[in-house]
Amino acid sequence: MRLQSPQFQALFTPGLRSVAELFEKKNYELRIAGGAVRDLLSGMTPQDIDFATTATPAEMKDMFTAAGVRLINNKGEKHGTITARLHEQNFEITTLRIDVITDGRHAEVEFTTDWEKDAERRDLTVNSMFLGLDGMLYDFFNGYEDLKNKKIRFVGKASERIQEDYLRILRYFRFYGRIAEKPDDHEPSTLQAIKENAKGLAGISGERIWVELKKILLGNHVNHLIRLLYELEIAQYIGLPLNGSLEELDRVAKNIQNLCPKPMTVLTSLFKAKDDVTNLDLRLKISKEEKNLGLFLVKHREELTKAAGPEPLRPYQDFIMDSRDTNTNSRILELLKYQGEENLLKELQQWTVPSFPVSGHDLRRMGMSSGKEIGAALQQLRDEWKKSGYHMDKEELLSCLKKL
């Protein structure tokens, strides 16, 4: 087939046209590769575009240098990737490769001009396609059929692809949550291969695992996929608690639908105690803010709830006003998502945190001089202000102080 969609046509910026001309002059083949092809075939505009070519890195460097094109970020060169900058746009172009030696984490590669051999070393059929700049699709492993049928399959034998890089286990689940229509439409042989190779994830860095896990947590079928991580004995190798609360996960997964939670908000549903957050951090090296959000949700998810009566949001507002932490507001928003409080979430998103209108200077002008006395008076006034729902202004509070 030949693709000519508006999304495909929109890729042809002055930069891409210039790159295409250079490759054409030298008779090097250049095609769009991997995820960008998948996105274009799904009618989406790709966020990142990777290119593949028959030219070697040395040939590309000579060609770009002779044309006066700036080359940046030479870190990818040993893997065959050259990054060129034209018309204020970066183009990442990789020579076709074959994996010669793999250890489950890294691969030693050899360059090739065989497009099928390069497609063969990719993880999933939907990620193994190429698209010519004329719109022609090159699909060696029925990736387009799988994409149309919303099937996620490994290229060739699942166990072989997994053993080349064990992170592909999590990439399988990530793309399943992004593309598959039904929650439980896996090939039994694929799940078996994943289970047999799960232990390989123990040797993958926590940072790489966390990148994939976060995407799984924000995709579709999240509770089904996390259950599979337990059933296939993967959880223990990626920092998840051995006895995660799967029933709580089911409940929270319903709560957070359409509320755009942070990955940590979803994941915290598995945790029973703060030690679970600490252990996750030890394995995955999550950020300080992610860790603090997890600890916050574990601590407050049951005790901090909406009030009965006309002001259900007040406990959350009071908590924010009493806190000295600037991140409390965003953590409370995540707590409301966790609890499924959609209406309160909208209300809090529109609420502006008020500033306490009285200062120590105001009290000094009223004749107070002792720091201790001023501190006590300010606390009294803050309590009154809180009782008023943070509505009393400076005048009302100072007149109130005279009565106190």
Automatic annotation (TrEMBL):
Among InterPro entries, the record links this protein to: Bact_CCA-adding_enz_type3_sf, NT_sf, PolA_pol_head_dom, PolyA_RNA-bd
List cofactor names only. Answer: Mg(2+)
Q: Which UniProt keywords apply?
A: Magnesium, Metal-binding, Nucleotide-binding, Nucleotidyltransferase, RNA-binding, Transferase, tRNA processing
Give the record's GO CC terms.
mitochondrion
Enumerate the SUPFAM superfamilies for this protein.
Nucleotidyltransferase, Poly A polymerase C-terminal region-like
Cell cycle listed as a keyword: no
Spell out the molecular function terms from Gene Ontology.
metal ion binding; nucleotide binding; nucleotidyltransferase activity; tRNA binding
On whether Ribonucleoprotein is a keyword of this UniProt record, the answer is no
Q: What Gene3D superfamilies does the entry give? A: Beta Polymerase, domain 2 (3.30.460.10), cca-adding enzyme, domain 2 (1.10.3090.10)
Superkingdom: Eukaryota
Which Pfam families does this UniProt record tie to the protein?
Answer: PolyA_pol, PolyA_pol_RNAbd
The Poly A polymerase head domain covers 30-153
All copies of domain tRNA nucleotidyltransferase/poly(A) polymerase RNA and SrmB- binding, residue ranges: 187-238
Q: What processes does the entry annotate via GO biological process terms?
A: mitochondrial tRNA 3'-end processing; tRNA 3'-terminal CCA addition
Family that this chain belongs to: Belongs to the tRNA nucleotidyltransferase/poly(A) polymerase family.
Name by which UniProt lists this protein:
TRNT1 nucleotidyltransferase
The source organism is Penelope pileata
* Lineage per the UniProt record: Eukaryota, Metazoa, Chordata, Craniata, Vertebrata
Give the gene symbol: Trnt1
